[in-house]
Structure prediction request, 257 residues.
Amino acid sequence: MNRKCMNTSFIIFITSFAAIVITLVILLMFNKSTISAMGGVDRVTDEDAFARQRKQMVEEQISRRGIIDKGILEAMEAVPRHLFIPEENRAYSYYDQPVPIGFGQTISQPYIVAFMTELLNAGKEDVVLEVGTGSGYQAAILARLVKQVYTIEIVEELGKEASKRLKEMGYDNVEVKIGDGYKGWSEHAPFGAIIVTAAAEHIPQPLIDQLKPGGRLVIPVGGVYEVQDLMLIAKDVSSKVIKESVIPVRFVPLIRK
Ligand code: SAH
Prediction:
C-alpha cells in the first residue's frame, strides 16, 4: 500500500468515526428532549405504577367487598385519585384508608366513596348535590355517572382548588360553590340524589326539602369525632320520608358557621 492510499484510508476512517459520534450525540439529545417533553422518565413510570395500584384498589377493596355496579367500578378505575391528593401524601393515594388533604380535612377511603355512590342509586338523568367538596374526588366519580353535579365546600381554599382541578381534568358537568352546605343549593333543587361527606349532628331539613320524590340522601349522622351512622334517607313518590341506618362510619364534622 502506498503512502497516498494509507492517508486516504485514514481520512475515511476519521470521518466515519466523527459521523458516528455526531449521530450518537444528536440521538441522545433528541431522546432527552422527547422524554422531558413527556414530563420526564419518573412521571411516565409513576403514572404506570399509579394505574396498576388503581386497578388493584378496585379489585381488592371495592369489587371483592361487594360493589357490583359496573359504572361505579369503571369510574373508580378511570379517575386518577392521586391527582386529588397533595404531593406529600400522594404515595398513600390507593391505600385502603382516608388521606389528609390539608385544612384538617380528608379524602374518604376508596371503598366508602364507592359504597356511598352505590347507595345514591343515581343515573345518567340525575342532578346530584354534594355537600363537602374537599378534594373534588367524589364529585369526579359522580360526574362520570350522572348528568350534573353541584357541590358545596365551606373551606374557600379547598373549594377553589377543587374547582380548578376538576376544570383542568375536563369535568364540565361539575359546579363548585363556596358556602355552608347545610342549607343545600335551592337554585338547582330538587335533586335526584344528595350526598353529604361530612358528619352532621342531625339530618339538615333543607336537604330533605330539596330532595325529589323518589330521590335519596346519604349522610353520616353523629357526634364530632365519634363513630357515626351512615344514614340513607329515601323520599318516596308520595314524598314520604324513610330513614335507615346502613353502616358505622367515621367522618370529619360538618362545620356550622
Ligand atoms: N368529598 C370529599 C371529602 C370530604 S371531607 C372528597 O372527595 O375529597 C369533608 C369536606 O366537607 C371538607 O372539605 C370540609 O371542609 C367540608 N365541609 C365541612 N362542613 C361543611 C359545610 N357546612 N358545608 C360545606 N362543606 C363542608
User: Anything to note?
Assistant: The chain has two domains: 1-37, 95-249.
